[in-house]
Amino acid sequence: MAGAQLNVLVTLDQAKTQWYHFMAIVIAGMGFFTDAYDLFCISLVTKLLGRIYYTDPTSKDPGTLPPSVSAAVNGVALCGTLAGQLFFGWLGDKLGRKTVYGFTLILMVLCSVASSLSFGHTAKGVIGTLCFFRFWLGFGIGGDYPLSATIMSEYANKKTRGAFIAAVFAMQGFGILFGTIVALTVSAAFRNAYPAPSYAVNPTASLVPEADYVWRVILMFGTVPAALTYYWRMKMPETARYTALIARNTKQAAADMTKVLQKEIQDEEEEVQRQVVAGDQWGLFSSQFLRRHGLHLLATTSTWFLLDIAFYSQNLFQKDIFSKVGWIPPARTMNAIEEVFRISRAQALIALCGTIPGYWFTVALIDVMGRFWIQLMGFLMMTVFMIALAVPYEHWTHPAHHTGFVVLYGLTFFFANFGPNSTTFVVPAEIFPARLRSTCHGISAAAGKAGAIVGAFGFLYAAQDPKKPDHGVQGQVARGDLQGERRRRHRRCSGQSLETSIFCKR
């Protein structure tokens, strides 16, 4: 590789683990903390959205989002993420990692706030606004994937590079857990402040007007970690590999790394310029790239695609799986806010016992076991536990077997994260040349999000039982134009917004 013998890069590769490595992990990792919060917190509130905007009080069950609406709410951020990974991955190689890094964070902050303030006079208006802003939220999140991975890869030393990149990605687990903690706290506070009967006792009273604030507060909390991280991101210098090998400013690269490593690095600008000019300059669509890295790119994209079909469908629809097997009580036996509390508590347990430990096992062992064996083991064990859950499905629906179900279900998350969910993130940040690293990582991550979209949309429709469709499906067929009914309801509650009118007594 051009510049492989440069003093600044050799010094960086051989540097001992020190404080700046941990600072880089935290600063880059907080982006992933925020990404995970914003992507997965929507699964905590979709049932509440269904109750607020799609409930028919004459039905025996509370409202749920119709499949098309649920698919949009859950999947639109993934579509934005896919687009953002491709765009910002390419831009990171053109403009530099640091410049683009700050912009993605600002976009995430603004769209988190806007998502929570979604407005409209009809259910379609509110959901449409929410989906619009969550698309652009996902667009910003998409930029964090290639940039965080690339920055950590280019800051780390050679000996512990895999562990450092995996540690950045492991912050995703804490983001998922933080989302459940916020939802637990908010729902518990509202549940105590505004007690309500279950839906079975009183359908109208089970949905207090203040429930509309619950999902908005939960979504808005995603701005907090992102805003706190912005200042520190802007203080990070550009990576030495980008500055020296792509921007061709080795004097600046040496100066930046001298401050970071607190060690004088001799500049060798003339030699660097000679190596850069003489080095390989082939691009992404060249025959040289295809020959050298074509199989690498195929491997990183295909494994990430296959993993995310299962990983995201499991994460986004945990609540539905828990409800189907009876771990969460039937919706009619709870009020709206109590349901959010129960869902959050169940998902917090999975995050604590399966998701987070899996990430950190990878951090501890990736430079010992190697990327290949961790990925192979993870895929194998996920397959084993999913088959163990799927084949005797009826067995797990009995109350006496719920504990066994939760244990096996948690193990699928453990081996996803102590396995391919981590390695698919790490490998693209290491295997491609510096001038195409961000672009190729973005392509690999985008393939993963394509799998996530397949999982998110496919799971929802595959889960529909033609003989017992979800209430949202029944409501669409039986009630026809639900918006017409809501407009009539609105007229009966004159002078109030639709969000308030749904709680009016009839």
UniProtKB/TrEMBL annotation:
<dbReference type="InterPro" id="IPR004738">
    <property type="entry name" value="Phos_permease"/>
</dbReference>
<keyword id="KW-0812">Transmembrane</keyword>
<feature type="transmembrane region" description="Helical">
    <location>
        <begin position="163"/>
        <end position="190"/>
    </location>
</feature>
<dbReference type="InterPro" id="IPR020846">
    <property type="entry name" value="MFS_dom"/>
</dbReference>
<keyword id="KW-0813">Transport</keyword>
<feature type="transmembrane region" description="Helical">
    <location>
        <begin position="213"/>
        <end position="232"/>
    </location>
</feature>
<feature type="transmembrane region" description="Helical">
    <location>
        <begin position="100"/>
        <end position="119"/>
    </location>
</feature>
<feature type="transmembrane region" description="Helical">
    <location>
        <begin position="443"/>
        <end position="463"/>
    </location>
</feature>
<feature type="transmembrane region" description="Helical">
    <location>
        <begin position="20"/>
        <end position="45"/>
    </location>
</feature>
<comment type="similarity">
    <text>Belongs to the major facilitator superfamily. Phosphate:H(+) symporter (TC 2.A.1.9) family.</text>
</comment>
<dbReference type="InterPro" id="IPR005828">
    <property type="entry name" value="MFS_sugar_transport-like"/>
</dbReference>
<dbReference type="GO" id="GO:0006817">
    <property type="term" value="P:phosphate ion transport"/>
</dbReference>
<feature type="transmembrane region" description="Helical">
    <location>
        <begin position="65"/>
        <end position="88"/>
    </location>
</feature>
<feature type="domain" description="Major facilitator superfamily (MFS) profile">
    <location>
        <begin position="24"/>
        <end position="506"/>
    </location>
</feature>
<protein>
    <recommendedName>
        <fullName>H(+)/Pi cotransporter</fullName>
    </recommendedName>
</protein>
<keyword id="KW-1133">Transmembrane helix</keyword>
<dbReference type="GO" id="GO:0015293">
    <property type="term" value="F:symporter activity"/>
</dbReference>
<dbReference type="GO" id="GO:0016020">
    <property type="term" value="C:membrane"/>
</dbReference>
<feature type="transmembrane region" description="Helical">
    <location>
        <begin position="372"/>
        <end position="393"/>
    </location>
</feature>
<feature type="transmembrane region" description="Helical">
    <location>
        <begin position="348"/>
        <end position="366"/>
    </location>
</feature>
<feature type="transmembrane region" description="Helical">
    <location>
        <begin position="405"/>
        <end position="423"/>
    </location>
</feature>
<feature type="transmembrane region" description="Helical">
    <location>
        <begin position="125"/>
        <end position="142"/>
    </location>
</feature>
<keyword id="KW-0769">Symport</keyword>
<dbReference type="InterPro" id="IPR036259">
    <property type="entry name" value="MFS_trans_sf"/>
</dbReference>
<keyword id="KW-0592">Phosphate transport</keyword>
<dbReference type="Pfam" id="PF00083">
    <property type="entry name" value="Sugar_tr"/>
</dbReference>
<keyword id="KW-0472">Membrane</keyword>
